[in-house]
Specification:
Order of helices and strands: HHHHHHHH
Distance between the termini: 52 Å
Number of helices: 8
Length: 176
């Protein structure tokens, strides 16, 4: 070994690394504002993506596209029973797709399921977001004033994984 410095794990240039893999390999600070900033920085760092061949969509994807094109009604029983319900059951169970699906298709499946189980009110429309940032992403947005006492300050014992936490530290947070 020529160097004693830790090196990031090597990945093949054609294989993108999952965010979970990046987190597992990262040397992150303990939970708190610095942890949030480091994790956010990792999330915003562009990763290599594999070049996906523009092949003909699978027959199951074509069938799902066809079903979703039949009706815009998320309560349509026909499309639910003929494939959308099965896709939702797989998603809800934490299943992963063998091939990628466009986000718009996945949103339609989730919307149909949420309307069916009354998670999403019938006929409701999502409001336009009012917190969308314009321009390039900002890397470190946190104010020392806003983060001096975290939102979990009233439940510091629950938020802390340290069994040997100093009682003085907990008392100053619980006074809020």
């Amino acid at each position: 070994m020529a160097s004693s410095e830790p090196r990031p794990p090597s990945t093949a240039p054609s294989t993108p690394q999952s965010f979970d893999g990046i987190l597992a390999a990262a040397d992150l600070p303990p939970p708190g504002p610095d942890y949030y900033a480091a994790r956010r920085s990792l999330w915003l760092t562009p990763r290599q993506t594999a070049q996906i061949a523009q092949a003909e969509p699978s027959t199951s994807r074509q069938r799902l596209e066809h079903l979703l094109s039949l009706s815009n009604d998320p309560e349509d029983e026909y499309i639910w029973k003929n494939g959308v319900g099965k896709v939702w059951t797989s998603l809800d169970a934490g299943g992963r797709f063998k091939r990628r699906l466009p986000l718009a298709m996945i949103i339609r499946v989730i919307h149909a399921a949420w309307v069916r189980d009354d998670t999403w009110p019938k006929g409701a429309v999502a409001p336009e977001p009012d917190d969308v940032l314009t321009g390039p992403p900002v890397t470190h947005i946190y104010s020392p004033i806003a983060t001096e006492y975290p939102s979990s300050a009233t439940t510091s014992r629950l938020a802390s994984n340290d069994d040997d936490a100093d009682a003085d530290d907990n008392s100053k947070h619980s006074a809020c």
